[in-house]
Specification:
Shape: globular
Mean pLDDT: 89
CATH topology: Rossmann fold
Order of helices and strands: EHEHEHEHEH
Number of strands: 5
Number of helices: 5
Largest sheet: 5 strands, parallel
Number of domains: 1
Length: 137
């Protein structure tokens, strides 16, 4: 049984692959998007938005960057936790992102255990917010 669905948004294929493998081994279904535009398309596809339990988003990407994508996710899906995963940490930027509702800010490369821990906490938080406590220990 899956622990939930995670959307990873990053323009680096190696990062997406690493995160996907790490979280898949931890029991999550992982959906990938290479930029904010593709992520927005994936989450809106069809009549019903794709159900995700956590979004992991890079900041510096082509087309629609992470700041724009995060603003969209927070406005359209406010109960879905957003975690930033960036290779270019920025203290001022991270402060702004926390004010906008992200739940954590990770710097690449991130240790597998830390990534899993953050996603577990974020997904549990999402399940509590939506009233589903069936997979919470």
């Amino acid at each position: 049984m899956s622990k939930g669905r995670i959307l990873i948004v990053d323009d680096e294929a190696d990062v997406r692959k690493s995160v996907r493998l790490t979280l898949s081994k931890a029991g999550y279904d992982v959906v990938e998007a290479e930029d904010g535009e593709k992520a927005m398309e994936a989450i809106r596809k069809g009549d019903n938005p794709m159900r995700v339990d956590t979004i992991i988003c890079d900041i510096h990407m082509p087309k629609i960057n992470g700041m724009e994508a995060i603003a969209y996710f927070r406005s359209q899906f406010p109960s879905v936790p957003v975690v930033v995963l960036t290779g270019k940490p920025d203290i001022k930027g991270s402060t702004e992102l926390f004010k906008k509702g992200i739940v954590d800010y990770l710097v690449k490369p991130v240790e597998a255990e830390r990534l899993i821990d953050v996603v577990n906490k974020a997904s549990k938080r999402h399940n509590i917010l939506k009233g589903d406590t069936s997979n919470i220990i």
